[in-house]
Amino acid sequence: MTTRSMVVVAVLSAGLAAPGSARAHFGTDGVTCAHPTLADALAALPTGGTVYVQDGVQDVTASGTSLVSVDVTLQGSDGTCSATAAGTSTLGFTGTGSILQVGASVDLVLRRIVLQGGDTPGDGGTLHLARGATLEMYDSVLEGGAAGGNGGCVSLTSGFLGLYAGSHVRHCAAGGRGGGVHADDSNVVVAADASLSSNAAAGDGGNLLIRDGTATVGGLISGGSAGGQGGGIAVRQAHGEPVVALHGTALVEHNTARDGGGISLRSDEVFLDDGLGIDAIVADAAILRANEASQDGGGIYARGTDNRIWLVGTASVVSNVAGTVGGGNGGGVSMSGGQMQLEDAVVVHGNTASEDGGGLWISGAEVSGAGLLLSGNTAGDQGGGAYVQSRASVAVDNVRTEDNGADTGAGWTVYDNARLTLDADDDLCSVVVVPGPTCSTVARNVSASGGGGILLGLGSRVDVRRTHFLRNEGSPGAALLTIVSGTHLTLRNSLVEGHLDTAISVPVGSFRLGFNTIVDNAVPLDLSGFGRLTGNVLASNTSNGWIGPAVGDCNLLQPGAVVPPGVGNVTGTPGLAAPWVPTTPSPLLVDACPFGPPTDIRGATRPASPLSPLYDRGAFEAF
Prior knowledge:
Helix content: under 10%
Strand content: 35-45%
Distance between the termini: 94 Å
Mean pLDDT: 89
Largest sheet: 35 strands, mixed
Number of helices: 1
Oligomer: single chain
């Protein structure tokens, strides 16, 4: 006797039609529609078989929820349930319960199938996958489901969900977490032409919640809403190493939540047995755009010392908003603890925070890397571009901080024992031409009060090298301002020009200014704090400024300027050609410094002349 694995169908609703009394809409042989109900067709299949569904809308409410216990493919067809047809078929369901419950370790494939509806008080409104089950979707849709628990459209545990080739999960709602998808210890793939959209959760994860799993996204995460965190995607950790990776054509946009309008990462309330946390990877033209948080983190919200955020390639965090209801920090990214890595032309642009950190809000975290455009961001209080606090450390090369706005500290605010290091490590970075994407600039940032470019406060330390400060606004300290004692500013190999207020103001704290060219400002310096100036050039400023108790060596100051005590300080008009580069042969080599940094602002070797061991004063070495 031949035995055959069967699909067990549990009928949970009344009203199943009697055999032979209904028109056939399902086929199993790829030739005819021989079965009146989905349950009949499933029961006729061996494991791994295919049910062909007649095109159009098939109401499966009367059959109730079906329990699928063997591997099966549901495939859209035509009026004769042909295997060669390419139609799309809809299974509509208006009853109570999920449309399908997939058994443990069962593989379900949907091809050109729409599952529409489902309403359960538990998990998985449209589709529930038991432990170890998998779902692959091709040109298929889950929509309109509701769950009182988690997973408005689908829930899965220790399984896999793949959305491929034009598949969508949309318009579902969960009373718990995961409005579209709730994935526990599972892997989720959203391909380039697939989407999770317009799903809602009362808790976390409007479109998607991942717990102890991975999400690889190349498609669209849009229009999700969460009463808690993560309007687009929420990632939670209980063990292991969750990862959410956005790449290629990934777009996370127009999602809303209390915290983390686009993405929320949280690992600080869990036990980590391996020291690993959550990786969020945004790479290769992926975009987080126009997401909103009523509180913190319009684009990304990260809490926990083990989180890691990687922004790579031409990744963009743009036009996100924090604090739509009351105060909020971190319009683009709000990160407390953990690590952030920046690589290759990352863009953080046009984000807004009602309080601090229009682009970035970094607290107690480490940020490193190279290649960042931080532009057009605004904050209602401090740090239009970025707000760095609570012993956070930011060390990034080739940063363009441009056109940001805030009440104070429009470009950067560095506070509460935090550290900021900006540099340019590429010899292509040159202010001789219009600065390119590899250059380090702080330009055209506007504060209503002081610190247009960078504001230092409460024990913070800022070290800026090879950077072009240009036409920032704010009084005092249009380019750089220290407030509160205990701060320390180091500025080296940099060009500071075109400021209509006092360019560098250090009323408190300490400073070291070395080999900078400070030109064409209203007032170049107001240095009441304690510090040292070495090898600087001051020229063409409207006022001579005031150098307080500073000391220094080898400075070339414009006529009438206060000369600090030290060796080799002189006044006079330097020979500079636009844009502020010494002419050749350099007149600055007369009484120039016998010491200096190894390169100038452009990365050119110093000293340049083979005939002299002396270094040119200022940011530039003559060629």
